[in-house]
Specification:
This protein has 295 residues and is mainly alpha-helical. The chain has helices at 2-38, 55-62, 66-96, 103-115, 118-129, 135-144, 158-183, 187-195, 200-228, 232-237, 249-259, 263-287, and strands at residues 41-42, 50-51. The chain has a single domain (56-290), classed as MetI-like fold (Orthogonal Bundle), CATH 1.10.3720. Strands 1-2 form a two-stranded antiparallel ribbon. β1 and β2 (50-51) form a beta hairpin.
Length: 295
């Protein structure tokens, strides 16, 4: 009787797991294995793949002059978006955690960019950034008497413009995460600090930030991973230009795979990107004990 019951439970468990396992197998596992195999081949989509071993990987590091540049562009994007985005999200979340009028409305307005598709939002910002006729250019001209630069076609401004858009796009999501972290902090800490005579800044620096470090660590890891994979905004706003200053790793991967039809080379690049992300994540995980407070 016990064996029959156990068997029925196993059948029920596998029945519920089967759709998810099937999806994982077809959508994730098989493509992952296929990309590993393709990275060892020369395949132009048309025709049969030709096995070339590690030549794609060797070319990436020895003969491809553009690959170091796209890595640097990606690093610049990460440095520009992650620290500023996290700091801004903490400040906004802290403000919205106070008892202010219209707090629910502000939360909704902040989260709207998150639920909007990146492509549609980038198309809107492309108009905002437009030279002369864009809203930003008109405001600078009418309010400050300044002629706006060509934000998306000037090599000095293109990456900055993409970074600003990306911070705006992710702000609402990060604010919601930090709000959850702030609401998990017991008010007794602040009450004790008030008794000790601490001011608002001291409470924020000595209580809020230390107790928020687990949330900061989560947002830091997820933000860096997503920033390494940036593609949509660069594709819509700049097409990797001007002069390749906004061409990131994933955009260059897209060009190799779907513009120049070098699928094997693009697959090798994808695996290099995976190893970079994994290495960065492991380093963050290893050193979290130095600054993350789980008490």
């Amino acid at each position: 009787m016990g064996k029959k019951r156990l068997s029925r439970e196993n059948v029920a468990a596998w029945t519920f797991l089967l759709p998810n396992l099937t999806g994982f197998l077809l959508i994730s596992l098989i493509p992952i294995v296929a990309s590993m195999v393709l990275s060892l081949t020369d395949w132009k989509i048309m025709g049969k793949p030709t096995f070339i071993g590690l030549k794609n990987y060797m070319e990436l590091f020895t003969r491809d002059d553009r690959f170091p540049q796209v890595i640097w562009n990606t690093v610049v994007f990460i440095i520009g978006t992650v620290p500023v985005g996290i700091a801004l999200a903490i400040l906004v979340a802290n403000l919205l955690n106070q008892r202010i009028k219209g707090r629910a409305l502000f939360r909704v307005l902040l989260f709207i960019p998150v639920v909007c598709s990146t492509v549609s939002a980038a198309l809107l910002w492309k108009w905002l950034y437009a030279k002369d006729i864009g809203l930003i250019a008109q405001m600078l001209r009418s309010v400050f008497g300044i002629k706006a630069p060509d934000f998306l076609l000037d090599t000095k401004w293109a990456m900055f413009s993409v970074i600003v858009f990306s911070i705006w796009k992710a702000l609402g999501y990060n604010v919601v995460i930090f709000l959850a972290g702030l609401q998990g902090i017991s008010p007794t800490y602040y009450e004790a600090a008030i008794v000790d005579g601490a001011n608002t800044f001291q409470k924020f620096l000595k209580i809020t930030i230390p107790l928020l470090t687990p949330t900061i660590f989560f947002v830091l890891v997820t933000s860096i991973i997503s920033s390494f994979q940036v593609f949509d905004q660069t594709f819509v706003l700049t097409k990797g230009g001007p002069a390749g200053v906004t061409s990131t790793i994933v955009y260059y991967l897209y060009e190799n795979g779907f513009v120049w039809y070098r699928m094997g080379y693009a697959s090798a690049m994808a695996w290099i990107l995976f190893l970079i992300i994994m290495a960065v994540t492991i380093v963050q995980w290893k050193f979290q004990g130095e600054w993350v407070n789980y008490d």
